[in-house]
Automatic annotation (TrEMBL), chain B:
<keyword id="KW-0808">Transferase</keyword>
<dbReference type="InterPro" id="IPR007627">
    <property type="entry name" value="RNA_pol_sigma70_r2"/>
</dbReference>
<dbReference type="GO" id="GO:0003677">
    <property type="term" value="F:DNA binding"/>
</dbReference>
<dbReference type="Pfam" id="PF04542">
    <property type="entry name" value="Sigma70_r2"/>
</dbReference>
<dbReference type="InterPro" id="IPR013324">
    <property type="entry name" value="RNA_pol_sigma_r3/r4-like"/>
</dbReference>
<keyword id="KW-0238">DNA-binding</keyword>
<keyword id="KW-0731">Sigma factor</keyword>
<dbReference type="InterPro" id="IPR039425">
    <property type="entry name" value="RNA_pol_sigma-70-like"/>
</dbReference>
<dbReference type="InterPro" id="IPR036388">
    <property type="entry name" value="WH-like_DNA-bd_sf"/>
</dbReference>
<dbReference type="InterPro" id="IPR013249">
    <property type="entry name" value="RNA_pol_sigma70_r4_t2"/>
</dbReference>
<comment type="similarity">
    <text>Belongs to the sigma-70 factor family. ECF subfamily.</text>
</comment>
<dbReference type="Pfam" id="PF08281">
    <property type="entry name" value="Sigma70_r4_2"/>
</dbReference>
<keyword id="KW-0804">Transcription</keyword>
<dbReference type="GO" id="GO:0003899">
    <property type="term" value="F:DNA-directed RNA polymerase activity"/>
</dbReference>
<feature type="domain" description="RNA polymerase sigma factor 70 region 4 type 2">
    <location>
        <begin position="127"/>
        <end position="178"/>
    </location>
</feature>
<feature type="domain" description="RNA polymerase sigma-70 region 2">
    <location>
        <begin position="32"/>
        <end position="96"/>
    </location>
</feature>
<dbReference type="InterPro" id="IPR014284">
    <property type="entry name" value="RNA_pol_sigma-70_dom"/>
</dbReference>
Amino acid sequence: MSDKRKAEEAGLGPWFDAGRAEAPAPSGDWLARMEALALEEQPTPQAPAVAVSPERARRGVRLRDLMSALGGWPAVAGLAAACAAGVWFGAVSPTGLTEWTAATATAAASDSYTTFEPASGFDVAMLGL
Amino acid sequence: MPYDAMSDTSDEDLLAAYAAGEPAAARALALRLGPKAFGVAMRMLKDRAEAEDVAQEALLRLWRAAPGWRAGEAKVSTWLYRVVSNLCIDRIRKARGGHVDLDAVAEPPDPARSAEQELQETARGAALQAALDTLPERQRQAVILRHLEGLSNPEIAEIMDIGVRAVESLTARGRKALEGLLGARRAELGYDDE
């Protein structure tokens, strides 16, 4: 206690000492409720914000717009699968096709003609041939 | 951070940790400030249920003010004492201005007389409280903050929204009134035997 306060209290000092010694204390239940209230009212911790450059943010927006225009993730997945199939056709040697063309070359010319005739019987009938 | 490690942390730092979502700070602040708020409210209102209500309301306001708290602007304890004091004064004034059933009160209350009755049957601390209860509310508030809560005059001036000289005047008048009430009871409560 400061000397100034002690001097102020003078003859009342013992009374104030008694008053300070008998400070009203809250119940344990009430304190527990206040603790629970403090936790209940506490703001939830915020995740630290990650700085994103404006250029990167614009790129992200453009990519999202493009994906949305294509039909979203399912459409993009289908497109990716088609691309992969195209690459596979281009990269893998067409041995099956070579064997097939070799076999047709040894057959009769008429057979080959029939085989490669693009017009069907229906087309011929329609043209009145 | 565990609660034990926060005992040396200032109220202001704890409040910042509270606003950042640190649960240990919430517990530490509630256990540190709850008894202070309740103590002042109890001395002012003399009613445990009312004091608990007021202290709870003040703490709730503090939790809600925490996210926007500006460091260095006000001391947390001073702010809390101010809210508690204002809520207590509001309640005292409402109770005084409220409806009074005259049939239930046979005679007008005599503060000095009730203080005397208290002095006869209670211990020294209770006798002081009884004498404090007879003071006008602003004097009582200033004396409680100065001599029982141990605050400085500038802090009390901030809490009560008055000048330091006005605080000195209030506490001086309060002490004089208490001396008049308690002086005659020194022998009765054993002070003259020490």
